[in-house]
Amino acid sequence: METASVLLQSRTIPFGFNLKGSQIISCRHFDKQFQSKVCSSQPSLKPIRNASSFSLSPSPLRKTTRTQFLSPLKCSFSNIPSSDSRNPLLEPFKNLSFDSVKSTLSELTPIKIVKWAAIVSLGIAATKWTVNMVFNPFFWMYFSWSWLFWPWFVAVALALYGLYAFRKHSIGEASIVEQLAIVTSVFTWLTLVPPAYFNGYLEGWPFVFFFVYHYFFFFNVSVRKRLYGDYYARPHDPKWDVYPPGWYRLLFCVGVMVGHWLAAFEAPELHRVPGGWSNVGVWILIVVTLLMQYNSTLYLAKYSEKVVVPTAVVQFGPYRWVRHPIYASTMLLFATYCLALRAPLSLLFVVAVCLMYYDQKAKLEEGLMVETFGESYLEYASKVRCKFIPFVY
Predict the structure, then answer these.
(1) What pairing do the DSSP bridges indicate for beta strands 15-19 and 59-60?
(2) From the CB of residue 236, how many other CB atoms can be counted at a distance below 10 Å?
(3) What crossing angle do the helices spanning 205-217 and 176-187 adopt, rounded to 10°?
(4) pTM: predicted TM-score of the whole model, two decimal places
(5) Mean pLDDT by 10 residues, the chain (393 residues)
(6) Angle 356-359-363 (CA atoms, 0-180°, nearest 5)?
(7) How do strand 59-60 and strand 309-310 relate by DSSP bridges?
(8) Treating both helix axes as pointing N-terminal to C-terminal, what angle do 219-228 and 205-217 enclose, rounded to 10 degrees?
């Protein structure tokens, strides 16, 4: 069987191959087939009649004294695409023709025309409304659009998940994520939801205090991490878990929540709250509150076993001025929130609720401290006469 040598020019290594037998060459890149008749440069070449085999055999070019050239190719174009290279995106248009479009249009009824016209009109109207809303500066300036629509669902969903996580926490099965969900859901409904409800948007201080509340109440966890290397509470003597009755604690939680909602109701609109240097005092109170909480927790943990059970009467740091600086810092945090929103009446309400609850809790704790340390704690109490507020006995 006679063959024809094909010479391919490459930029790297030239090579050649032989064409034998088959008359059809598939060019998949063009999704077409070419039919070729290969002729040799020899004068006695006969047409190839056996098309049973076709092979491409790469072979490096050898230097010979005889030069061979590729014989001219006579190609015929075939418009039949290969079966394995069909484009799936074009499948729906495979059988599309003018006759099929004509038959579909002829089957349309007035009811179908009205229906499709309504669908197209609604689509155009929705697209126009979306574009106008996205490019409207008011849409990005305020959050009224968000709190009127989706964040209410987010806040309610977060509250429900927080209640579920709190139930697991009450039986000791809550994970770190679920404990974080409890805290975040509470702070969302304390600092974000009330001003968003009464103002229709959010800006300024509510965002600041949302993160300040998180930072404040995670100091206890950070102290555990600093002392023990993890975030988990250690088993301890349950007699030091001193709390007022359950109904009293429930009233305290309700009172704090009501105080925050009253502050949002009493406060002026958020964009009318003064800014600039008029808020320097608020920032100073925030810093003092955070430092007071952290130092109180740290000193108490250093003189306690497992951060809960005290081993000595702490008389350093903030304990030099008040006997219960942790409770005092919590009251100062709530008061600073009301002060930032310019809600003085709500400030008095929240402080009154905290004083009634923490006074009962402090009496129980001080009775236990006297029972444990005796004269040592009585001497400290006579020296530091202020419970929560300096210079207020």
Answers:
(1) antiparallel
(2) 14
(3) 140
(4) 0.60
(5) 45 47 48 46 47 47 46 51 56 69 76 86 89 67 49 83 90 84 91 87 87 86 71 68 85 94 92 84 93 87 71 84 91 94 94 93 89 88 86 63
(6) 145
(7) unpaired
(8) 40
| Token pair belonging to 189 | 């409904």
From the number of C-beta atoms within 10 Å of its C-beta (0-12, 13-18, 19+), residue 259 rates as buried
Distance CA 340, CA 267 (A): 9
Q: Output the six-digit token pair for 185.
A: 């859901």
- Identify the residue whose tokens are 């969903």: 157
pLDDT at 86: 61
